[in-house]
Amino acid sequence: MSDLRDRAIQIYDAFTHEHRDRRTLLRQMAVLAGSVAAAETLIAGIAASPAAAAITQPDDKRLKTRKGAHILPDGKNINGYFAVRADLAHKAGAVMVIHENRGLNAHIEDITRRIALEGFLAFAPDFLSDQGGTPADENAARDLIAKVDYDSIVAEALGVIGMLKRIGGANGKVGTVGFCWGGGLVDRVAVAAGGALAAAVPYYGPAPEPAEAVKVKAAMLLHYAGKDTRVNSTGAPWAAALEAAGKDVQAYTYEGVDHAFNNDTSVERYNAPAATLAWQRTIAFFHAHLDT
């Protein structure tokens, strides 16, 4: 069963990250599982479920939240989700939360609220804003993500950093965290941002070329999944290059867990012990680098 599960996740990851069609996914899963019905059950367990319960609630009275357009320093609008503690009485560091290739969905909004509850100003931009915003269908969102201009997205992310430096209640220090596609974007934003970014936390994100490590100024906390060979083939050289360049970097590999182990909306991927430990490290890291 373990081998079947691992193979199923590999097939599903090829579907999500190599943009294969769903018909191919279903055919391969049916061969693996023995029937179309069993394949559908297997796919449902691996895929993120939009119906999964959130750890925090959208109407949590401890928080002030707002979803809508925000103005970047260059005058451009970007949609996003903002959260802050209602009782926050001091200037705080800000954290940009970067979504997976499913776009800005309920899970990412949940993570944004979790970060806000820890005492940060938290903002999750929708990097599909120019395409009309994140669609409800996650497959449609993935198709749109595959077509975005990556340089333009990095530029938008730098604009978000500029906005968060000056937003009301901010202390001027900005960090970022991202997952999967968003983890890869975190690394690239760290390369492009220079000293504007104080701290960066990519979760299992495909990494840049190691030669880019010398450009990073932010402190880096890297999270990788032990069974995620696709990402780890780039992550290990990236972590080594950051260390060789004398950067402030910590890298952790969580053995025996899959890509997207932090995503609690995916039954088959989520690993509570690894996710909890990575989250504790992430919050402590942000406090160390973003608090005044």
TrEMBL record:
Keyword entries, A-Z: Hydrolase, Membrane, Transmembrane, Transmembrane helix
Q: Which SUPFAM superfamilies match?
A: alpha/beta-Hydrolases
What enzyme category does the UniProt record give? hydrolase
* EC number from the UniProt entry: 3.1.-.-
From the UniProt record, list the coiled-coil ranges. Answer: none
Give the matching Pfam families: DLH
Residues in Dienelactone hydrolase domain copies:
80-289
The record, for Gene3D superfamilies, names: alpha/beta hydrolase
Q: Does the keyword Transmembrane helix apply?
A: yes
Q: Does the keyword NADP apply?
A: no
GO MF entries: hydrolase activity
Write down the InterPro entries for this protein, in alphabetical order. AB_hydrolase_fold, Dienelactn_hydro, Dienelactone_hydrolase-like, TAT_signal
Transmembrane segments in this chain: where?
Answer: 30-55
Say which domain of life the source belongs to. Bacteria
Could you identify this protein by its name?
Dienelactone hydrolase family protein
